[in-house]
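User: Can you predict the 3D structure for this chain?
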Amino acid sequence: MTDLHSALSEAGLTAVVDGDILAAHSVDQAQLVAPGRAAALVRARSTAEVSAVLRIASDLGAPVVPQGARTGLAGSATAVDGAILLDVSPMDAIVSLDPVNRTAVCQPGVRNAAISRAAAEHGLRYAPDPGSWETSTIGGNIATAAGGMCCVKYGVTAEYVLGLEVVMASGEVMRCGRQTAKGVAGYDLVRLFCGSEGTLGVITEATVKLSPIPRERLTLAAVFDTTADAGRAVTAIMASGAQPSLLELIDNVHLRALEDLRPMGLPTDAAALLLVAADNDPDAELIAIERLCEEAGAAEVYRATDATEADALLESRRMAYHAMEPLGTVLVDDVAVPRSRLAEALDGVQAAAERHGVVIGVIAHAGDGNLHPNIVVHPEDENSVAAGKAAFDEILEMTLAMGGTITGEHGVGMLKRDWLAREVDPVNLAVQRRIKEALDPLGILNPGKVLAG
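Assistant: Here is the predicted structure, written as C-alpha coordinates:
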Protein backbone atom coordinates (compact mmCIF):
# COMPACT_ATOMS: atom_id res chain seq x y z
CA MET A 1 0.00 0.00 0.00
CA THR A 2 3.02 2.29 0.28
CA ASP A 3 3.04 2.88 -3.49
CA LEU A 4 -0.65 3.83 -3.41
CA HIS A 5 -0.28 6.24 -0.52
CA SER A 6 2.83 7.80 -2.08
CA ALA A 7 1.12 8.24 -5.43
CA LEU A 8 -1.89 9.92 -3.85
CA SER A 9 0.36 12.22 -1.86
CA GLU A 10 2.48 13.12 -4.90
CA ALA A 11 -0.72 14.07 -6.75
CA GLY A 12 -1.58 16.51 -3.97
CA LEU A 13 -4.41 14.36 -2.66
CA THR A 14 -5.02 13.91 1.05
CA ALA A 15 -5.44 10.23 1.85
CA VAL A 16 -6.97 9.26 5.19
CA VAL A 17 -5.49 6.00 6.48
CA ASP A 18 -6.65 6.03 10.10
CA GLY A 19 -8.16 2.60 10.78
CA ASP A 20 -11.18 3.81 12.75
CA ILE A 21 -12.11 6.38 10.11
CA LEU A 22 -11.70 3.84 7.32
CA ALA A 23 -13.89 1.36 9.19
CA ALA A 24 -16.61 3.96 9.68
CA HIS A 25 -16.58 4.79 5.97
CA SER A 26 -16.44 1.17 4.81
CA VAL A 27 -20.17 0.46 5.07
CA ASP A 28 -23.44 1.86 3.87
CA GLN A 29 -26.79 1.03 5.48
CA ALA A 30 -27.03 -2.48 4.09
CA GLN A 31 -27.18 -4.74 7.11
CA LEU A 32 -25.34 -8.08 7.14
CA VAL A 33 -23.09 -7.13 4.20
CA ALA A 34 -19.52 -7.59 5.42
CA PRO A 35 -17.06 -4.91 4.27
CA GLY A 36 -13.54 -5.49 3.06
CA ARG A 37 -10.50 -3.67 4.40
CA ALA A 38 -9.99 -0.37 2.59
CA ALA A 39 -6.53 1.06 1.96
CA ALA A 40 -7.36 4.77 1.97
CA LEU A 41 -10.15 7.34 1.96
CA VAL A 42 -9.98 10.34 -0.37
CA ARG A 43 -12.49 13.15 -0.02
CA ALA A 44 -12.61 14.64 -3.49
CA ARG A 45 -13.49 18.31 -3.93
CA SER A 46 -13.35 18.60 -7.71
CA THR A 47 -13.64 16.66 -10.93
CA ALA A 48 -9.88 17.07 -11.34
CA GLU A 49 -9.28 15.30 -8.02
CA VAL A 50 -11.62 12.45 -8.96
CA SER A 51 -9.78 12.12 -12.25
CA ALA A 52 -6.42 12.06 -10.49
CA VAL A 53 -7.58 9.30 -8.12
CA LEU A 54 -8.79 7.15 -11.01
CA ARG A 55 -5.59 7.64 -13.01
CA ILE A 56 -3.57 6.48 -10.01
CA ALA A 57 -5.91 3.56 -9.40
CA SER A 58 -5.61 2.51 -13.04
CA ASP A 59 -1.82 2.68 -12.93
CA LEU A 60 -1.66 0.56 -9.78
CA GLY A 61 -4.66 -1.68 -10.39
CA ALA A 62 -6.25 -0.50 -7.14
CA PRO A 63 -10.02 -0.88 -6.68
CA VAL A 64 -12.08 2.27 -6.19
CA VAL A 65 -15.37 2.41 -4.29
CA PRO A 66 -17.30 5.64 -5.03
CA GLN A 67 -19.26 6.97 -2.05
CA GLY A 68 -21.64 9.76 -1.18
CA ALA A 69 -23.83 9.90 1.92
CA ARG A 70 -23.74 6.08 2.20
CA THR A 71 -27.49 5.83 2.74
CA GLY A 72 -27.73 2.93 0.28
CA LEU A 73 -29.35 -0.32 1.35
CA ALA A 74 -27.74 -2.85 -1.01
CA GLY A 75 -24.04 -2.60 -0.17
CA SER A 76 -23.07 -0.57 -3.24
CA ALA A 77 -20.85 1.73 -1.17
CA THR A 78 -19.35 -1.05 0.96
CA ALA A 79 -15.56 -1.32 0.95
CA VAL A 80 -13.64 -4.11 -0.76
CA ASP A 81 -10.13 -5.19 0.21
CA GLY A 82 -7.40 -2.73 -0.77
CA ALA A 83 -9.88 -0.14 -2.03
CA ILE A 84 -9.62 3.59 -2.29
CA LEU A 85 -12.87 4.91 -0.82
CA LEU A 86 -13.62 7.85 -3.09
CA ASP A 87 -15.96 10.18 -1.20
CA VAL A 88 -17.50 12.80 -3.49
CA SER A 89 -19.88 14.24 -0.88
CA PRO A 90 -17.69 17.38 -0.43
CA MET A 91 -18.62 18.30 -4.02
CA ASP A 92 -21.92 19.79 -2.90
CA ALA A 93 -22.53 22.90 -5.00
CA ILE A 94 -25.62 23.68 -7.04
CA VAL A 95 -23.69 25.06 -10.00
CA SER A 96 -26.67 26.74 -11.68
CA LEU A 97 -30.45 26.84 -11.58
CA ASP A 98 -32.36 27.87 -14.69
CA PRO A 99 -36.09 28.54 -14.15
CA VAL A 100 -36.74 29.14 -17.86
CA ASN A 101 -35.30 25.83 -18.99
CA ARG A 102 -36.35 24.24 -15.69
CA THR A 103 -33.00 22.64 -14.99
CA ALA A 104 -30.46 22.53 -12.20
CA VAL A 105 -26.80 21.64 -12.60
CA CYS A 106 -25.52 19.97 -9.45
CA GLN A 107 -22.36 18.41 -8.13
CA PRO A 108 -22.82 14.84 -6.86
CA GLY A 109 -22.72 15.69 -3.15
CA VAL A 110 -25.79 17.96 -3.25
CA ARG A 111 -28.50 16.65 -0.92
CA ASN A 112 -31.72 15.70 -2.68
CA ALA A 113 -33.93 18.04 -0.65
CA ALA A 114 -31.55 20.97 -1.17
CA ILE A 115 -32.40 21.09 -4.88
CA SER A 116 -36.10 21.57 -4.22
CA ARG A 117 -35.40 24.20 -1.57
CA ALA A 118 -33.21 26.15 -3.99
CA ALA A 119 -35.80 25.88 -6.78
CA ALA A 120 -38.80 26.75 -4.60
CA GLU A 121 -38.43 30.51 -5.06
CA HIS A 122 -39.15 29.91 -8.75
CA GLY A 123 -42.17 27.73 -8.03
CA LEU A 124 -40.20 24.63 -9.03
CA ARG A 125 -38.96 21.44 -7.38
CA TYR A 126 -36.94 18.31 -8.06
CA ALA A 127 -39.68 15.67 -7.93
CA PRO A 128 -37.94 12.35 -7.05
CA ASP A 129 -38.12 12.03 -3.27
CA PRO A 130 -36.55 8.92 -1.71
CA GLY A 131 -37.26 8.43 1.98
CA SER A 132 -33.71 9.61 2.71
CA TRP A 133 -34.14 12.82 0.70
CA GLU A 134 -32.81 15.02 3.52
CA THR A 135 -29.52 13.11 3.65
CA SER A 136 -29.02 11.19 0.40
CA THR A 137 -27.04 12.85 -2.39
CA ILE A 138 -28.03 13.39 -5.98
CA GLY A 139 -24.96 11.48 -7.18
CA GLY A 140 -25.95 8.48 -5.11
CA ASN A 141 -29.57 8.79 -6.18
CA ILE A 142 -28.51 8.65 -9.81
CA ALA A 143 -25.97 5.87 -9.29
CA THR A 144 -28.62 3.67 -7.67
CA ALA A 145 -31.54 4.91 -9.82
CA ALA A 146 -33.40 5.81 -6.64
CA GLY A 147 -37.17 5.85 -6.39
CA GLY A 148 -39.34 7.63 -3.87
CA MET A 149 -42.82 8.23 -2.58
CA CYS A 150 -44.15 10.33 -5.43
CA CYS A 151 -42.96 7.98 -8.18
CA VAL A 152 -46.48 6.65 -8.68
CA LYS A 153 -47.29 9.92 -10.47
CA TYR A 154 -44.03 11.70 -11.15
CA GLY A 155 -41.61 8.89 -11.99
CA VAL A 156 -38.15 7.83 -10.84
CA THR A 157 -34.73 9.47 -10.83
CA ALA A 158 -33.66 8.34 -14.32
CA GLU A 159 -36.57 10.25 -15.85
CA TYR A 160 -35.22 13.52 -14.44
CA VAL A 161 -31.55 13.28 -15.44
CA LEU A 162 -30.78 15.16 -18.65
CA GLY A 163 -26.99 15.22 -18.64
CA LEU A 164 -23.97 13.93 -16.75
CA GLU A 165 -20.29 14.56 -16.32
CA VAL A 166 -18.62 11.22 -15.59
CA VAL A 167 -15.01 10.33 -14.84
CA MET A 168 -14.14 7.03 -16.48
CA ALA A 169 -11.93 4.31 -14.98
CA SER A 170 -8.96 5.68 -16.95
CA GLY A 171 -9.39 9.13 -15.43
CA GLU A 172 -10.80 10.59 -18.66
CA VAL A 173 -13.70 12.98 -18.21
CA MET A 174 -16.79 12.50 -20.36
CA ARG A 175 -19.96 14.53 -20.77
CA CYS A 176 -23.11 12.86 -22.00
CA GLY A 177 -26.73 13.88 -22.40
CA ARG A 178 -27.90 17.40 -22.99
CA GLN A 179 -29.08 20.70 -21.53
CA THR A 180 -32.18 20.89 -23.72
CA ALA A 181 -35.68 19.56 -23.05
CA LYS A 182 -35.34 17.15 -26.00
CA GLY A 183 -32.43 15.42 -27.68
CA VAL A 184 -31.69 12.00 -29.19
CA ALA A 185 -28.17 12.35 -30.59
CA GLY A 186 -26.33 9.06 -30.24
CA TYR A 187 -26.72 6.30 -27.68
CA ASP A 188 -28.42 7.23 -24.42
CA LEU A 189 -25.37 7.02 -22.18
CA VAL A 190 -27.09 8.98 -19.42
CA ARG A 191 -29.49 6.09 -18.86
CA LEU A 192 -26.57 3.68 -18.90
CA PHE A 193 -25.01 5.37 -15.89
CA CYS A 194 -28.32 5.71 -14.02
CA GLY A 195 -28.38 2.64 -11.79
CA SER A 196 -24.82 1.56 -12.62
CA GLU A 197 -23.86 1.79 -8.92
CA GLY A 198 -20.40 3.20 -9.54
CA THR A 199 -19.28 0.22 -11.62
CA LEU A 200 -18.93 2.09 -14.93
CA GLY A 201 -17.76 5.56 -13.94
CA VAL A 202 -17.90 8.21 -11.21
CA ILE A 203 -20.55 10.90 -11.58
CA THR A 204 -19.14 14.38 -10.89
CA GLU A 205 -21.95 16.60 -12.21
CA ALA A 206 -25.59 16.18 -13.18
CA THR A 207 -28.10 18.29 -15.06
CA VAL A 208 -31.54 17.46 -13.66
CA LYS A 209 -35.02 18.42 -14.71
CA LEU A 210 -37.22 20.57 -12.47
CA SER A 211 -41.01 20.65 -12.46
CA PRO A 212 -43.67 23.01 -11.08
CA ILE A 213 -44.67 22.67 -7.43
CA PRO A 214 -48.30 21.47 -7.29
CA ARG A 215 -50.64 24.21 -6.13
CA GLU A 216 -52.32 22.06 -3.50
CA ARG A 217 -52.01 18.58 -2.08
CA LEU A 218 -54.58 16.84 0.08
CA THR A 219 -54.06 13.59 1.94
CA LEU A 220 -56.22 10.79 3.27
CA ALA A 221 -55.51 7.68 5.32
CA ALA A 222 -57.50 4.47 4.97
CA VAL A 223 -57.41 1.83 7.70
CA PHE A 224 -57.76 -1.86 6.81
CA ASP A 225 -58.29 -4.99 8.88
CA THR A 226 -56.28 -7.13 6.44
CA THR A 227 -53.31 -6.38 4.19
CA ALA A 228 -55.13 -8.23 1.41
CA ASP A 229 -57.98 -5.70 1.57
CA ALA A 230 -55.45 -2.88 1.40
CA GLY A 231 -53.85 -4.52 -1.63
CA ARG A 232 -57.22 -4.83 -3.33
CA ALA A 233 -57.86 -1.15 -2.68
CA VAL A 234 -54.60 -0.28 -4.42
CA THR A 235 -55.58 -2.42 -7.40
CA ALA A 236 -58.97 -0.73 -7.57
CA ILE A 237 -57.48 2.76 -7.35
CA MET A 238 -54.99 2.16 -10.14
CA ALA A 239 -57.56 0.38 -12.32
CA SER A 240 -59.96 3.32 -11.97
CA GLY A 241 -57.68 5.69 -13.85
CA ALA A 242 -57.03 7.79 -10.76
CA GLN A 243 -53.59 9.37 -10.55
CA PRO A 244 -52.66 9.86 -6.90
CA SER A 245 -49.43 11.72 -6.26
CA LEU A 246 -48.65 9.31 -3.43
CA LEU A 247 -49.99 5.85 -2.60
CA GLU A 248 -48.14 4.23 0.29
CA LEU A 249 -48.85 1.22 2.50
CA ILE A 250 -47.75 0.83 6.13
CA ASP A 251 -48.40 -2.52 7.79
CA ASN A 252 -49.19 -3.28 11.43
CA VAL A 253 -45.59 -4.03 12.41
CA HIS A 254 -44.51 -0.59 11.22
CA LEU A 255 -47.57 1.19 12.63
CA ARG A 256 -46.73 -0.12 16.10
CA ALA A 257 -43.03 0.66 15.71
CA LEU A 258 -43.78 4.19 14.52
CA GLU A 259 -46.16 4.84 17.39
CA ASP A 260 -43.52 3.63 19.85
CA LEU A 261 -40.93 5.91 18.25
CA ARG A 262 -43.09 9.02 17.96
CA PRO A 263 -46.67 8.79 19.30
CA MET A 264 -49.16 10.50 17.01
CA GLY A 265 -52.30 8.37 17.34
CA LEU A 266 -51.65 5.91 14.53
CA PRO A 267 -54.12 2.96 14.44
CA THR A 268 -51.88 0.28 15.95
CA ASP A 269 -54.64 -2.35 15.85
CA ALA A 270 -54.99 -2.04 12.07
CA ALA A 271 -53.47 -4.58 9.70
CA ALA A 272 -52.50 -1.85 7.26
CA LEU A 273 -52.79 1.84 6.59
CA LEU A 274 -52.96 3.29 3.10
CA LEU A 275 -51.65 6.83 2.82
CA VAL A 276 -52.94 8.58 -0.31
CA ALA A 277 -52.31 12.07 -1.64
CA ALA A 278 -53.67 13.92 -4.66
CA ASP A 279 -52.58 17.24 -6.13
CA ASN A 280 -54.42 17.84 -9.40
CA ASP A 281 -58.08 18.29 -8.41
CA PRO A 282 -57.47 16.91 -4.91
CA ASP A 283 -60.99 17.21 -3.52
CA ALA A 284 -62.59 15.33 -6.39
CA GLU A 285 -59.73 12.83 -6.62
CA LEU A 286 -59.85 11.93 -2.94
CA ILE A 287 -63.64 11.60 -2.91
CA ALA A 288 -63.34 8.95 -5.63
CA ILE A 289 -60.41 7.24 -3.91
CA GLU A 290 -62.21 7.22 -0.57
CA ARG A 291 -65.15 5.41 -2.17
CA LEU A 292 -62.84 2.81 -3.70
CA CYS A 293 -61.15 2.20 -0.33
CA GLU A 294 -64.50 1.70 1.35
CA GLU A 295 -65.63 -0.71 -1.35
CA ALA A 296 -62.41 -2.69 -0.84
CA GLY A 297 -63.21 -3.08 2.86
CA ALA A 298 -61.62 -0.10 4.62
CA ALA A 299 -62.66 -0.01 8.26
CA GLU A 300 -62.15 3.74 8.40
CA VAL A 301 -61.11 6.53 6.06
CA TYR A 302 -60.16 9.98 7.25
CA ARG A 303 -58.62 13.02 5.64
CA ALA A 304 -55.88 15.23 6.98
CA THR A 305 -57.54 18.46 8.10
CA ASP A 306 -54.62 20.70 7.18
CA ALA A 307 -51.15 20.73 5.67
CA THR A 308 -49.50 20.22 9.05
CA GLU A 309 -51.39 17.00 9.69
CA ALA A 310 -50.74 15.82 6.13
CA ASP A 311 -47.00 16.50 6.49
CA ALA A 312 -46.96 14.63 9.81
CA LEU A 313 -48.46 11.56 8.14
CA LEU A 314 -45.89 11.74 5.35
CA GLU A 315 -43.05 12.17 7.82
CA SER A 316 -44.21 9.08 9.70
CA ARG A 317 -43.91 7.13 6.46
CA ARG A 318 -40.38 8.45 5.95
CA MET A 319 -39.44 7.26 9.45
CA ALA A 320 -40.80 3.73 8.99
CA TYR A 321 -37.45 2.04 8.40
CA HIS A 322 -35.75 3.76 11.35
CA ALA A 323 -38.69 2.93 13.61
CA MET A 324 -37.87 -0.77 13.12
CA GLU A 325 -34.27 -0.45 14.33
CA PRO A 326 -35.08 -0.83 18.06
CA LEU A 327 -36.48 -4.30 17.26
CA GLY A 328 -33.12 -5.64 16.02
CA THR A 329 -30.95 -5.55 12.91
CA VAL A 330 -33.12 -4.83 9.88
CA LEU A 331 -32.46 -6.69 6.64
CA VAL A 332 -34.22 -4.50 4.08
CA ASP A 333 -35.68 -6.15 1.03
CA ASP A 334 -36.82 -4.20 -2.03
CA VAL A 335 -38.91 -5.99 -4.61
CA ALA A 336 -41.50 -4.94 -7.15
CA VAL A 337 -44.37 -6.97 -8.55
CA PRO A 338 -47.04 -6.15 -11.12
CA ARG A 339 -49.60 -3.94 -9.37
CA SER A 340 -52.30 -6.52 -10.06
CA ARG A 341 -50.45 -8.99 -7.80
CA LEU A 342 -49.77 -6.67 -4.86
CA ALA A 343 -52.33 -8.28 -2.55
CA GLU A 344 -50.93 -11.73 -3.37
CA ALA A 345 -47.39 -10.54 -2.67
CA LEU A 346 -48.40 -9.09 0.70
CA ASP A 347 -49.92 -12.44 1.65
CA GLY A 348 -46.75 -14.19 0.47
CA VAL A 349 -44.53 -12.04 2.68
CA GLN A 350 -46.72 -12.75 5.69
CA ALA A 351 -46.58 -16.47 4.95
CA ALA A 352 -42.76 -16.33 4.73
CA ALA A 353 -42.61 -14.59 8.11
CA GLU A 354 -44.75 -17.27 9.71
CA ARG A 355 -42.93 -20.15 8.00
CA HIS A 356 -39.48 -18.99 9.15
CA GLY A 357 -40.49 -17.56 12.51
CA VAL A 358 -39.20 -14.05 11.90
CA VAL A 359 -40.70 -10.60 12.25
CA ILE A 360 -41.23 -8.95 8.87
CA GLY A 361 -42.79 -5.54 8.53
CA VAL A 362 -43.85 -4.26 5.13
CA ILE A 363 -43.87 -0.72 3.88
CA ALA A 364 -44.62 -0.22 0.21
CA HIS A 365 -44.79 2.28 -2.58
CA ALA A 366 -48.05 0.49 -3.21
CA GLY A 367 -49.01 2.37 -6.34
CA ASP A 368 -45.82 1.09 -7.99
CA GLY A 369 -46.11 -2.46 -6.67
CA ASN A 370 -42.80 -1.80 -4.88
CA LEU A 371 -42.61 -3.57 -1.51
CA HIS A 372 -40.02 -3.21 1.25
CA PRO A 373 -40.27 -6.27 3.50
CA ASN A 374 -38.10 -5.32 6.47
CA ILE A 375 -36.83 -8.48 8.14
CA VAL A 376 -35.75 -8.27 11.79
CA VAL A 377 -32.83 -10.48 12.79
CA HIS A 378 -30.48 -10.70 15.76
CA PRO A 379 -26.85 -11.08 14.58
CA GLU A 380 -25.73 -12.69 17.83
CA ASP A 381 -28.14 -15.57 17.12
CA GLU A 382 -27.04 -17.69 14.13
CA ASN A 383 -30.48 -19.29 13.87
CA SER A 384 -32.14 -15.87 13.70
CA VAL A 385 -29.84 -14.74 10.90
CA ALA A 386 -30.32 -17.99 8.98
CA ALA A 387 -34.11 -17.73 9.31
CA GLY A 388 -34.04 -14.10 8.15
CA LYS A 389 -31.92 -14.91 5.11
CA ALA A 390 -34.18 -17.84 4.25
CA ALA A 391 -37.22 -15.56 4.38
CA PHE A 392 -35.34 -12.98 2.29
CA ASP A 393 -34.59 -15.58 -0.38
CA GLU A 394 -38.14 -16.91 -0.34
CA ILE A 395 -39.52 -13.43 -0.96
CA LEU A 396 -37.17 -12.98 -3.93
CA GLU A 397 -38.20 -16.35 -5.36
CA MET A 398 -41.86 -15.41 -4.99
CA THR A 399 -41.27 -12.06 -6.65
CA LEU A 400 -39.62 -13.57 -9.72
CA ALA A 401 -42.37 -16.17 -9.99
CA MET A 402 -44.88 -13.30 -10.15
CA GLY A 403 -43.03 -11.65 -13.02
CA GLY A 404 -41.51 -9.07 -10.70
CA THR A 405 -38.01 -7.75 -10.12
CA ILE A 406 -35.50 -8.33 -7.31
CA THR A 407 -35.01 -4.59 -6.81
CA GLY A 408 -37.37 -1.73 -7.51
CA GLU A 409 -35.14 1.12 -6.39
CA HIS A 410 -32.31 0.19 -3.98
CA GLY A 411 -30.13 -1.53 -6.55
CA VAL A 412 -28.25 -4.83 -6.64
CA GLY A 413 -25.03 -3.93 -4.86
CA MET A 414 -23.53 -6.85 -2.98
CA LEU A 415 -26.78 -7.89 -1.36
CA LYS A 416 -28.44 -9.26 -4.49
CA ARG A 417 -25.65 -9.78 -7.02
CA ASP A 418 -26.17 -13.55 -7.05
CA TRP A 419 -29.85 -13.01 -7.86
CA LEU A 420 -29.34 -10.89 -10.98
CA ALA A 421 -28.59 -13.98 -13.10
CA ARG A 422 -31.91 -15.47 -11.99
CA GLU A 423 -33.84 -12.45 -13.21
CA VAL A 424 -32.20 -11.67 -16.55
CA ASP A 425 -31.54 -14.09 -19.40
CA PRO A 426 -28.00 -15.30 -20.24
CA VAL A 427 -27.63 -13.05 -23.29
CA ASN A 428 -28.68 -10.02 -21.24
CA LEU A 429 -26.15 -10.88 -18.55
CA ALA A 430 -23.40 -11.39 -21.13
CA VAL A 431 -24.14 -7.97 -22.66
CA GLN A 432 -23.91 -6.36 -19.23
CA ARG A 433 -20.54 -8.02 -18.65
CA ARG A 434 -19.25 -6.80 -22.02
CA ILE A 435 -20.31 -3.24 -21.22
CA LYS A 436 -18.50 -3.44 -17.89
CA GLU A 437 -15.35 -4.81 -19.57
CA ALA A 438 -15.43 -2.13 -22.27
CA LEU A 439 -15.70 0.80 -19.83
CA ASP A 440 -13.64 -0.67 -17.01
CA PRO A 441 -11.19 -3.16 -18.59
CA LEU A 442 -9.10 -3.48 -15.42
CA GLY A 443 -12.16 -4.07 -13.25
CA ILE A 444 -11.22 -1.40 -10.70
CA LEU A 445 -14.57 0.38 -10.43
CA ASN A 446 -16.58 -0.91 -7.47
CA PRO A 447 -15.59 -4.56 -8.05
CA GLY A 448 -17.85 -7.24 -6.64
CA LYS A 449 -20.96 -5.09 -6.98
CA VAL A 450 -23.93 -5.79 -9.27
CA LEU A 451 -22.30 -8.56 -11.37
CA ALA A 452 -21.18 -11.70 -9.55
CA GLY A 453 -17.90 -13.37 -10.44
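The chain has a mean pLDDT of 95. The CA atoms of residues 68 and 140 lie 6 Å apart.
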